[in-house]
Amino acid sequence: MSESKSPASQALDVLSAVRERYGRAAATPSRELCCPTPQDQGRLGLLPREILERDYGCGDPSRFARPGEVVLDLGSGAGKACFLASQRVGASGRVIGVDATSEMLALARAHQREVGERIGWHNVEFRRGHIQDLALDLDKLEDWLAAHAVHDAAGWERLRAEEERLRREEPLIPDASVDLVISNCVLNLVAHEDKQRLLAEIQRVLRPGGRCAISDITCDEDVPSELMRDPDLWSGCIAGALREDRFLQAFADAGLYGVELVSRQESPWAVVRGIEFRSVTVLAWKGERGPCLDHHEAVIYNGPWKEVVDDEGQRLRRGERTAVCRRSFMAYTREPYCAHVTAVVPRAPVGERDARVLESCCSAVRDPRVTKAGPARADRLPGDSSCCEPSSCC
What we know:
Elements: H1 7-27, H2 41-44, H3 49-53, E1 70-74, H4 80-89, E2 94-99, H5 102-119, E3 124-128, H6 138-147, H7 153-169, E4 178-184, H8 192-205, E5 206-219, H9 225-228, H10 231-235, E6 242-243, H11 244-253, E7 257-264, E8 270-272, E9 275-285, E10 293-294, E11 297-301, E12 307-309, E13 315-317, E14 321-324, H12 326-332, E15 341-344, E16 356-357, H13 368-371
Parallel strand pairs: 1-2, 1-4, 2-3, 4-5, 5-6
Antiparallel strand pairs: 5-9, 7-9, 8-9, 10-16, 11-14, 11-15, 12-13
Helix pairs in contact: 1-5, 4-5, 6-7
């Protein structure tokens, strides 16, 4: 691709290159797209060989699925991760796979009934769409096009209007409808100018308190521009890789919190011009939105670090009773923070009407008089007989 092409034309070439290569890989296994990863052999044993041979992932984000959850797999391909997640969420859960490659979707759907019979329940479905536009259902759009041919500018305008109607009234994935978003070696297949849009879509479809588990290929140095112009390197998970630190920061930039690198391949999967490419898996969470209202709550950071700073700039010093607003308090008392802090509630609860904006939200220490347990008490010294009660210190 020549350097004179615009970012928009580059995005179109990337999309075409990925669709063409993975269309071929649906028919004939492509080993160069695989990054071997340890997986649960018991669950894999329920999947057809044809599905396993067309696994082009670099991790196993399905292992983070929990019973009863709604799981969304981005770039679901032949359906392997969906079928593994199905076994983890159980009959009460649900799994949705989204892919834009028709050949891969056909393969996954062809085995859908058979795998469901082996697992013992049918809770997986596959939908066609672009993962950076999870509102637009491409199957429904194609049905509309079959009945409304586009020949001129007026037809094009009607097509655009139908796209917006589908996004608004019949979204592929509705807002706040998913507990866990997973993706296995797919974000690097999206053009760089669309990556932030994709992460924004993850944020949109997650329920508050939901999370994403993303396995992908990252690099230790920036990919040179000349490599980014190679369609084969794009579809081969090389040209679209982000540098490790920027990959993690992208989740925070999208408004997700608790971003954590949970696994990182020790040896590189590939080396191109001295740049190492390896598989990583990242977890990130969706928090509540809204004003920072003070309900007189606090948290104590337990350590082991001297202090930590979250993505909103809130600084927690080890052992201090840090004043936090209700939104932060709710986040800190859930995963992934709850194991690292001690929650301290106020002696007198503050109602919604009485809560005020917490002005100093980044380093203020909560006055201990606000969070003492119970009403004001008379002095009580060690050895005082009044303290010798069942389960007391005496």
